[in-house]
Amino acid sequence: MAAPLPRDPIADAQRNWEEHGWADVAPPMAAITAIMRTQQILLARIEGALKPFGLTFARYELLALLSFARSGELPMNKASALLQVHPTSVTNAVDRLEGSGLVTRSPHPTDGRTTLIELTAEGRIVAKRATAVLNTEVFGQSGFDAADVDQLIRILGTFRRNAGDFAD
Amino acid sequence: MAAPLPRDPIADAQRNWEEHGWADVAPPMAAITAIMRTQQILLARIEGALKPFGLTFARYELLALLSFARSGELPMNKASALLQVHPTSVTNAVDRLEGSGLVTRSPHPTDGRTTLIELTAEGRIVAKRATAVLNTEVFGQSGFDAADVDQLIRILGTFRRNAGDFAD
DNA sequence: GCAATATACTAGGACATCCAAGGGTTTGGA
DNA sequence: TCCAAACCCTTGGATGTCCTAGTATATTGC
Fold first, then answer.
1. How many domains does chain A have?
2. Is residue A13 part of a domain?
3. Beta strands of chain B (E only): which ranges?
4. The whole model's pTM is what?
5. Size of interface A-B (CB pairs under 8 A)
């Protein structure tokens, strides 16, 4: 998108924070800002890898979740909870995946309120192929070394637990 | 948004990856997914803290950037580069900040193509107050301990440099 | 058994981000 | 000098996310 900057803007921000008397919160500010920016970079890579499949990250996540479900189907509210996104976001994703013929909606056999999302045969194939590309092009070339990956999993896992994501 | 899950969905995904023969990329997959989710949690906290000011994170970042500029003004393309966002996003943010009376647009004195963004007096006050709230409510209670903050800054700093964010 | 409450999904609106395209300005080479 | 290429910003279109509200179905309590 843009040429590399001559200097790290987040390090500059950290310096500004220190100079304005907020030295105590300057490091967490820098860490949080770095997380925001890193997410942006990773999302761009992921969406780039998924573009040939006509998928976005949101739709891929739903597809992958379904492909790991034993029966290949899941209630919408379950998907919303597992993906940690708003129910309306799932509705949106399902609308488009259904339009592409990758999933279908069907009524829940016993609960009339619930809608089941089910992978189609094509959806299962696309999920498999997209995962293979993500594995080789993104996850396999993350740029994090093994030790740092472990650190990230540990640090962010603790954070998410404390934030109330899961009980464990 | 949702009740805590009984188990960590990212740890489950990592297990699924291992069981499907992708054990080599399972850890980076988990780390990257954790970054995506952590960003989501942090963004929600930040936007919550900024809501009373009528600001979003995107608009706050622009406001903060201007408040640190000596003259309190910056060309749009400079802001776009420093914030690492698309020029149209800056246009959008400036439109709204201008509508709220926090910034003004003015023509560049020598380059007719360039538009300068300038903080208003009120904009400067709002930036100061919003920063104070963010410092106490978000950065001051990040949930990361000091050692982990250092790790994050180091790991993500290396990643961003390798990704071409900055040369340093 | 029926009303009140809770749950599940969808519709419409507000924002933010990106891409593609267009109009004005500046720069540099023929 | 002059015109093409490069640059800057804005507009319009597509996507995703969240919130609020509304409809339909289940469950609970009197």
1. 1
2. no
3. 73-75, 103-107, 115-119
4. 0.93
5. 208
